[in-house]
Amino acid sequence: SQGANDKYEYIYFKHASMGTLSMGDIEPGADGTMESNYMGVAGKDGASLSSVRVRTNANGDFGALATAFVGTIDPGADANRVRYDSASFSGFSVHGDLEYGGGGSVGVKYSGTVAGLTLKAGIGYEADGGGTNIKGGSVAVKHSSGLHLAGNIGKQDADNSNVDPDWWRVAGGYDAKMNSLGNTNFTVAYSEKSDETVVGYQGEMLQLAVKQSLDAVGGAIVLQYDNYSFSDAAATGLKDIDTVVLETSFNF
């Protein structure tokens, strides 16, 4: 069984033409199908809002956690599983899994070049065995000049709940080698999420980021500004949150 602190404990058997069979604590086959992009940012939507609460305009009190309003939708590791990943054929690959205790997922991904554009895309579906499913897809394109654009969408449905979150994001930018340090990636993104934890909750994110790769040390520096706005069914009047993130990473 899976322990609370276990992560990525699995074994796999890989064949060049027959694909890979994995067993253990690993992401589902549909993982990544809803989040394809060429962004240069520090984490997913809402990553800078850990433990931050939204302030109300009415009296200045702190309300719900900001992460109750925002975030992405894409299947992630939550159980032990058996997973199969096919080898790539003409840029396409198929991924599927069965979870311990019931449920599973399937995803189809594409990565390649079409009409001079670098393209990656995915479509996926996951059922957790308890009546909740996630479905969605994404597509991202990048021109040889460095211009890039992506669209993401995800939807969660639960049989035993009226809280069914949905999320979408559009992102674009420019990624090119502008100095001797490595590529510089400018990103602008906008996303909306509805009913994340409560019906009527909605969060919106506007994100501006610049990522400077550091080829000499295999790392990068990201400077990022996020603006989050929130609303609920009661029209409480919730204040925006602005965050500035500076992230550095190095490989040793």
Q: What is the element layout, followed by pairings?
A:
Elements: E1 10-15, E2 19-25, E3 53-55, E4 62-65, E5 80-85, E6 92-99, E7 104-114, E8 117-127, E9 132-142, E10 147-158, E11 166-179, E12 182-194, E13 202-214, E14 219-231, E15 241-249
Antiparallel strand pairs: 1-2, 2-5, 3-4, 5-6, 6-7, 7-8, 8-9, 9-10, 10-11, 11-12, 12-13, 13-14, 14-15
Description of the structure:
Helices cover 0% and strands 56% of the residues. The chain is mostly beta strands and 252 residues long. Strands 1-2-5-6-7-8-9-10-11-12-13-14-15 form a 13-stranded antiparallel sheet, with no helix packed on it. The protein has a two-stranded antiparallel sheet with strand order 3-4.
Features:
single chain; 252 residues; mainly beta; two-stranded antiparallel sheet; globular
Helix content: under 10%
| Most strands sheet | 13 strands, antiparallel
Please give the order of strands in the largest beta sheet: 1-2-5-6-7-8-9-10-11-12-13-14-15
Number of helical segments with 4 or more residues: 0
Strand content: over 45%
Look at the helices and sheets and give the structural class: mainly beta
Strand runs, count: 15
The helix/strand series, from N terminus to C terminus, equals: EEEEEEEEEEEEEEE
3D shape:
globular
Mean pLDDT: 92
Residue runs with pLDDT of under 50 for 5 or more positions: none
Straight-line N-to-C gap: 33 Å
Rg: 20 Å
